[in-house]
Amino acid sequence: MPDSDEELIPEDEAEMGLALVKKLREKLKKAVEEKQEYLEGWQRARADFANFKREEAGFVQAKEERIRAEFAETIIPALDSFEMALKSPSFNNASQEWKSGITSVYNELKKSLEKFGIVSFSPLGEMFDPNRHEAVRQVEVGQADKEHTVVSVERSGYTLGDNIIRPAQVSVATFAKGKEI
Questions:
Q1: Backbone phi, then psi, for 118, in 5-degree steps?
Q2: Structural domains in the chain (count)
Q3: Are the C-beta atoms of 69 and 46 separated by less than 8 Å?
Q4: Residue 130 maps to a domain
Q5: Could you tell me the residue range of the domain that residue 158 belongs to?
Q6: What Cα–Cα distance (Å) separates residue 145 from each residue in 38, 119, 128, 176?
Q7: Do the domain assignments include residue 84?
Q8: Is 20 exposed, middle or buried (0-12, 13-18, 19+ CB in 10 A)?
Q9: In this structure, is residue 154 part of a structural domain?
Q10: Does residue 14 fall inside a structural domain?
Q11: For 18-30, how does the pLDDT look when each residue is reduced to its tens digit (9 = 90+)?
């Protein structure tokens, strides 16, 4: 017997071993490819689900804003009526208790809308902005620096966050040389 630690393998068994190793390597390669395919599929599904959650949250928020805007649109005409009443000459002639009651109801309605993020705005003195204001008339003024400014608010506007629910109806100044205020 030779003095080496090598084990002698018969030639036919060695060929079978090489074929077995080759077969195992092919199976391993196929398993690694399947693993990669499953991993990529799982990652795509995870990303799709994250996108779905984000889109769904956006849809829910948009729906909530539409509901709040619809709610505001039902309440705003009542506020308009109160504003007209508060500006009327007969309001000034009413008793102090009556004026206080009407003003209190008006303020409570406005606070109710504000709890839902709906805020009124009155752009008196601002530059006319067609995105926020609706011009109902022009008023001639004698000062050039007052041109295109809001000189009176006929009806308040309302916002919900950055969105205009209803633009303010305003009178806009136009410069007329020689005209004095």
A1: -100, 120
A2: 1
A3: no
A4: yes
A5: 119-181
A6: 69, 29, 13, 11
A7: no
A8: exposed
A9: yes
A10: no
A11: 888 889 999 999 9
* Token digits of residue 39: 């991993």
pLDDT at 165 over 90: yes
Q: Residue 152 is encoded by which pair of tokens? A: 């009176």
- Which strand ranges, in their side-by-side order, compose the sheet holding 163-166? 118-121, 157-160, 163-166
- pTM for the model: 0.67
Give pLDDT tens digits for 30-70. 999 999 999 999 999 999 999 999 999 999 999 999 999 99
CATH number for position 138: 2.30.22.10
3-state SS track over the chain: CCCCCCCCCCHHHHHHHHHHHHHHHHHHHHHHHHHHHHHHHHHHHHHHHHHHHHHHHHHHHHHHHHHHHHHHHHHHHHHHHHHHHHHCHHHHHCCHHHHHHHHHHHHHHHHHHHHCCEEEECCCCCECCCCCEEEEEEEEECCHHHCCEEEEEEECEEEECCEEEECEEEEEEEECCCCCC
